[in-house]
Amino acid sequence: MVTREDVLQMARLSKLYIKEEELDALTKDMDKIIAFAETISAAQCEQTNFDNINNLSNVLREDVVVPSYDREEILKNAESQDEGYFLVKRRS
Amino acid sequence: METNFSKIKATSKLLSSKQMSCEELTKQYLASIEKENKVLNAYVKVTEEQALATAKKVDEKIMRGESLLPLEGIPMSLKDNISTKDIETTCCSKILQGYTPIYNATVWDLLQNQNAVLLGKTNMDEFAMGSSSETSCFGGSFNPHNPNHVAGGSSGGAASSVSGNIAVFGLGSDTGGSIRQPASFCGVVGLKPTYGTVSRYGLIAYASSFDQIGPITTSVEDAALVFDAIAQHDPMDSTSQGKKESAAASLSKEIKGMKIGIVKEYFEGIDGDVRTAMEKSIETYRQLGAEIVECSIPEIKYGLPVYYILACAEASSNLGRYDGIRYGYKVPHYEDINEMICKTRSEGFGAEVKHRILLGTYVLSAGYYDAYYKKAQNLRGVIVNAFKRVFEACDVILAPTVPMTSFERGQTQKDAVQTYQTDICTVPVNIAGLPAVSVPCGFDSKGLPIGLQLIGNNFCESTILNAAYQFEAATRENGAFKAVEMGVAL
Description:
- Chain A is mainly alpha-helical.
- Helices cover 36% and strands 4% of the residues of chain A.
- Chain A is flat and about 55 Å long.
- Chain B is built from 15 helices and 17 strands.
- In chain B, α9 packs across α12.
- Classes of the chains: A mainly alpha, B alpha+beta.
């Protein structure tokens, strides 16, 4: 059973605000979705130690120096910037 | 084989024989978009300037008497989660509005190298999360067969653009069925390649261990041509491996003796016109000399929860990057940085995306990790092994792409769990990383298309595309179905 507190805790971890008037409906939705996810608990299965599709490991490449992106280019999508840096408000 | 049709080849011939210049062709498509997009809402951005500049380059090449590459001068569309340098790429989310990537996705680089003509970016469910394209911040994309019905999703705009003849082909992405389901709904071909064949570099991530880019086309041959162009090893994607062989070169091989598996779990609860269409399709394959093999994968019943647990877990991590600092939407008023990030994310993401982030966070959080994420990951291995067993007994698995045909507008947002059920036949393929193609196999009584899904073993795109090609040749002539009985193709 998913509670309002569970949803608020998940929202806090996900950095999302939930409006008070949306909380009950969202809790109900989440409860349904979790109950649906819960159906796997009944599965009796062998241990597979699944890691990744195609069983790749240690995909390495030569360490070659290549030019990177222009700093101005990278910054052009930022809403706030200053002297070549992303600008954010100081933590209070 | 003369009975099949390739719109890409026909268009290329039109250009190389100088019956039409690439500029004229491009302008024709742009004019059609202007008209049709009002109804279909397939494009969220039209790239006219870019398209005409490429067309000019192609025309100059033709004038110089040079031969054309397979996709050169072909008007096409890209789903809006595929990064295009200097062209806005939004994933149809408010949080990415105004974002213009500073690099190209590898697939777009490959197409651009061939001078494919980009007409625009296509509509999709926000961050590819949905089955109708209606979670898009631009509103849904609609079905050319009946605009009161959805185009499907999440690559709804791509399928709508191809089916509505406002693009010769489109690229979509498939995480749990997002290429095959809209292709099925819109009566076109959609190929989800093996995980790792097509580079994901520049594809904005939803669930990285499931996501794969693939073509949506009008014919199987076109799907093979586009697949051959984009399926290449890319050092920028460490999971990329490229293709085993050319798919286009493998078409028109006889399928006599090919073993086609019918996995009974795919047919549970399938009835009405979709079942009839499947039965007729199986009969068509029998007549083509294929051997039908009955088999079973009981683990498929865990496919949907396994998919939603793992995909949402990956999404909750992947979407952590949207904080308003480096790109995209940022709220104008806030007290401190934490409030800025929380407000930006709360206003920037739509309801379905928030649902999936919350679910993903839940299944990864302390106390729930073992019961959900770890268990689902283990079951993923079980499903992978189950498909391996089945492919020891058959070459291809035949199944419906979707248990139903396209639904009416506004139906999908009512009940999340019920909406997830529409993915029941598509998600197992993504869980196991397999290739699968959806090919049109007829219509329901309302005149809406039905899709047939052919699933192959890893890196066996050639096998499924050839099987699809033979089916297409047997059932259609110049794109139209040869004979129709009770609304279902013979």
